[in-house]
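User: tokens in, sequence out, please.
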């Protein structure tokens, strides 16, 4: 308490004494014991009121003992129960928690982790993921700069998150207790399966599998991929104590359209304790990319036949060669190739203004460039009557689609009229031209995209020689055919804007986050924040339908469908104001990542202990762990003075006492007839 506060308290005593003396003793006609009592009550009441006005700070010093925190972190994932170690974990936890010496030295605090990290003293071992990296991040956040040990009771098998070995740092020691049978059992496991989500019909798609073997003898197993009851492929693989891993690469045919579900298995006559990790399901959506292409030409030229053969090397492409008078309905085609257009093509260009079919224009010595300037404005041609041979320069910065340099610089030249070509607007150049060693800075193969309409320009004839030369160089037409196919693919796939755009996967692994997002745009194609989106999800087997609202986030709407069982589902997203609808399907594959392990990851837990300067222990060494913690002098309780400053105005009892004194004074005066 400060000197000023003491002076004010003395002044308050003086004022309270003077006022009570003046009222009940000095002015009193008959001095009696009642008057003295009333003066005393008034003195206390006035002094109490003045105390509240002064509001002195009451300082209190106490001695507090701060113990070192000891977080006991329990792995609550289902892998603990799958390894039949849940009872042992509970036993170890109770033994540590109930130890009196540990309680005296440490502040014991219990946590659990699986999908999430949280404080808990009860455990059910039903978590669908294991994220030990999350443990490290949360402990750092909770204890900040405090030095403390950590007891981690886990099998060490992590299914999500970063590598936890280096997540804990090297300041706080971690003492892992390795849970699970460390005996090496014979076990086959599909460790990882890589496959594209999409494939085109009648093509082949790759499947890459990484297999793992644990055992002490040489064995043989079959890697099988099946669909339903049909075996698609089967491959025999040998393993031994020195060859514990294998990778398999297989090409599977994409015959059926839609989402195709497959099962990859590794099978053996050997007896295994855990066969759950021998199988993984995967799915691929097979897309129908059938494309109808028309080649319109007024002349006979070997380029036309070479283009037809190159395009139809993809079984999903169909080419129709048309004379000018044969062209009727352009909308029946996905792409129209206009070979060396002249004024005779006028009706075709006019019809295409309505049909809006993407075009591939190829020029040459027979092209009417003045007519071509009238029909399009992407390129402006100023050509003379002379002919010229144009060599090729590949542009490595071209990025409209993945383009490979198939050796364009060494291909025969294309022939076109001599002149200048000016680019007008946004034009992407894949190939530019040169005459002998002189670069022309003019395009040879260029692409445009304007208001969802795409066009390609090949400025020269005799590209059939390119196809022939690539066959000479590579003993195959494949490189040239793929080059042409990518041009057709670009022209055949328009990105038309839709008002309702929904993003989702075609398949999910059971236990993974299942989130569907959507965007709704108004007529100006602006994100509409006032849209009302709902989704109806129907289980194809039970026919049960559940309805959800999509919640607005940052420029999108989303819904979380976690909790759905494995199976096939149809769903419909609807915007309630405009009635815009999007319908599709997805499948949840039966896959439990926590059942993939047959042994604890002793190596990882040992690395973690070494990295943090701790030590790993096994369940039968729990007493050694307790002794290690108790004997470690780095963890000592700290005594510190805790100074508590409390303003007197916070004392509610002082106000009650003042009111009681004034009330008592009133009743005494009333009783004695002094009012």
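Assistant: Sequence out:
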């Amino acid at each position: 308490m400060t000197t000023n506060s003491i002076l004010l308290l003395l002044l308050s005593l003086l004022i309270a004494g003077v006022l009570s003396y003046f009222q009940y003793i000095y002015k009193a006609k008959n001095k009696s014991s009642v008057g003295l009592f009333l003066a005393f009550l008034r003195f206390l009441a006035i002094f109490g009121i003045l105390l509240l006005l002064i509001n002195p700070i009451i300082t209190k010093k106490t001695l507090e003992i701060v113990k070192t925190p000891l977080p006991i972190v329990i792995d609550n994932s289902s892998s603990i129960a799958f390894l039949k170690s849940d009872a042992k974990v509970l036993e170890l936890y109770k033994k540590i928690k109930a130890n009196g010496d540990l309680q005296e030295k440490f502040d014991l605090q219990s946590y659990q982790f699986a999908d999430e990290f949280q404080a808990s003293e009860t455990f059910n071992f039903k978590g669908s993921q294991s994220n030990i990296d999350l443990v490290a991040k949360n402990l750092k956040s909770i204890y900040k700069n405090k030095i403390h040990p950590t007891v981690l009771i886990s099998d060490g098998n992590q299914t999500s998150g970063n590598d936890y070995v280096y997540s804990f740092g090297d300041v706080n020691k971690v003492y892992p207790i390795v849970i699970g049978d460390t005996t090496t059992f014979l076990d086959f496991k599909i460790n990882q399966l890589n496959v594209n989500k999409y494939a085109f019909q009648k093509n082949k798609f790759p499947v890459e599998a990484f297999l793992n073997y644990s055992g002490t003898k040489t064995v043989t197993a079959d890697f099988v991929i099946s669909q339903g009851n049909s075996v698609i492929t089967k491959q025999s693989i040998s393993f031994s104590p020195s060859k514990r891993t294998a990778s398999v690469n297989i090409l599977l045919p994409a015959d059926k359209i839609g989402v195709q579900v497959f099962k990859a298995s590794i099978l053996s006559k050997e007896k295994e304790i855990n066969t759950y990790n021998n199988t993984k399901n995967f799915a691929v959506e097979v897309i129908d990319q059938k494309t109808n292409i028309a080649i319109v030409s007024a002349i006979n030229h070997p380029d036309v036949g070479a283009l037809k053969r190159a395009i139809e090397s993809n079984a999903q492409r169909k080419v129709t060669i048309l004379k000018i008078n044969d062209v009727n309905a352009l909308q029946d085609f996905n792409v129209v190739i206009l070979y060396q257009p002249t004024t005779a093509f006028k009706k075709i260009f006019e019809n295409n203004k309505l049909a809006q079919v993407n075009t591939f224009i190829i020029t040459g010595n027979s092209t009417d460039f003045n007519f071509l300037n009238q029909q399009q404005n992407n390129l402006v041609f100023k050509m003379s009557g002379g002919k010229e041979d144009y060599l090729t320069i590949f542009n490595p910065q071209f990025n409209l689609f993945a383009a490979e340099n198939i050796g364009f610089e060494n291909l025969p030249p294309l022939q076109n009229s001599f002149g200048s070509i000016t680019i007008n607007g946004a034009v992407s150049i894949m190939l530019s031209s040169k005459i002998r060693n002189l670069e022309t800075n003019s395009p040879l193969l260029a692409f445009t995209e304007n208001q969802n309409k795409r066009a390609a320009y090949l400025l020269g004839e005799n590209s059939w020689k390119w196809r022939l030369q690539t066959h000479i160089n590579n003993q195959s037409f494949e490189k040239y055919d793929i080059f042409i196919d990518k041009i057709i693919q670009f022209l055949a796939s328009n990105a038309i804007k839709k008002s309702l755009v929904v993003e989702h996967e075609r398949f999910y692994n059971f236990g993974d986050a299942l989130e569907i997002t959507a965007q709704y745009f108004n007529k100006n194609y602006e994100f509409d924040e006032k849209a009302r989106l709902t989704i109806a999800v129907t289980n194809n087997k039970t026919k049960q339908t559940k309805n959800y609202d999509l919640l607005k986030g940052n420029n999108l709407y989303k819904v979380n469908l976690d909790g759905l069982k494995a199976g096939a589902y149809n769903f419909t997203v609807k915007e309630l104001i405009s009635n815009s609808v999007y319908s599709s399907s997805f499948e949840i594959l039966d896959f439990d990542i926590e059942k993939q392990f047959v042994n604890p990851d002793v190596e990882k837990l040992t690395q973690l202990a070494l990295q943090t300067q701790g030590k790993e222990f096994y369940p039968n060494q729990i007493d050694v762990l307790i002794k290690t913690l108790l004997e470690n002098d780095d963890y000592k309780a700290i005594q510190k003075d805790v100074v508590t400053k409390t303003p007197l105005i916070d004392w509610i009892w002082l106000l009650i006492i003042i009111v009681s004194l004034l009330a008592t004074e009133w009743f005494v005066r009333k009783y004695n007839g002094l009012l």
